[in-house]
Amino acid sequence: MLIVVILFILGIILIIKGGDIFTDGAIWLAGYTGIPQVIIGATVVSVATTVPEFTVSLIATLSGHPDMAVGNVVGSSIVNIGLILALSILIAPVIVTNSMKKGSLIMVSSGVIFVFFLQDKTITSVNAVFLLAMMIPYFIYNFRHANIKKNSQNGNIKDSSQTGAIKKNLILFGLGAVLIIVGSKLLIDNGSKIAEFLGIPELLIALTFISLGTSLPELVTAATSALKGNPEIGAGNVLGANFLNMTMIFGGTALIVPVPIPDQTLILDAPVMLSLMFATTLFLFNFKKLNRIHGLIIITIYSIYLYMLVNNSYI
Question: pLDDT tens digits, residue range 59-81?
Fold first, then answer.
């Protein structure tokens, strides 16, 4: 069992490191092609930071552990708000922007649709297509509302002096993807063994340790930006990541293979996820700044959820 725990932790480390390398590579490749930074942040970075969740959910489903896939997506969305956003606000107040308000509305709307699909207790390929289709207006919106300022620096001079940099970043990009896949496999296989050994549901492992592990890129982004005096970056990343959790990650997974939904997700997890989304949206529309009181409220809801989660798992 000690080896299993070590491999589980190793899986988390590989996902974190792989996600970091993959994100850096994605940003460099996007920048090399001349894509403006504002669009890179709204699209490439958001997608790159959610790659660990997608890989874990897909491998979990294909490996016969659908509860882990569901728990990872719903759990990550809960962690993103209940822990990551709350910690970001507790570190430094967040100035509310119109972009955040719109982002929260997009998040809540997708959350309501996602939970509506959950009621059939199976996310089918038809549901998946609809969830994935929701990404089209999302990206169109980001491109249209981005203030694109082209200048001479946006044009990249692809001369022979950059050949080494291209090869290096392509290798790192591929290495990051491999580390994420290997780490995800270790996480799922050994997470299921730990759950079996402890006699607790795989869903509980996914909603806690796995969802936290795959959400670490967002946690690092939020904490770093808050400590550097830019907490709005972390807040915006959380809103975008939650939208992608329900559309790209779960939609992409269910498109390949239908995903059954556990009863606990319908009764406890999904309602808590929606509650946190609505609470965040209400705060954003009613206050010009999110301060530590809001952070305490959000993290309190998350703490109560964890208590109910552990309590419920032993009934």
Answer: 888 888 888 888 888 998 999 89
Taking the whole predicted model, whether its pTM rises above 0.70 is answered as: yes
Q: For residue 243, which of 145, 107, 132 has the smallest C-alpha distance? A: 107
The amino acid present at 78, given as its one-letter code, is I
Per-residue pLDDT at 117? 94
How far is CA 304 from its chain centroid? 22
pLDDT in tens, 262-275: 999 999 999 999 99
For 201-212, what is each residue's pLDDT tens digit? 778 888 887 787
Go through the domains of the chain in sequence order and give each one's CATH number.
2-147+161-313 (1.20.1420.30)
Question: Are residues 48 and 180 in contact, defined by beta-carbon separation less than 8 angstroms?
Answer: no
Q: List, as own/partner pairs, every contact residues 138-147 make where C-beta atoms lie below 8 angstroms and the sequence separation is at least 24, other chains included.
A: 138/106, 138/243, 138/247, 139/43, 141/106, 142/39, 142/42, 142/43, 143/39, 143/43, 146/36, 146/38, 146/39, 146/42, 147/38
Residue-wise pLDDT tens digits, 79-101: 989 998 898 888 888 888 887 89
For tokens 């509305």, the residue is 105
Give the pLDDT of residue 91.
85
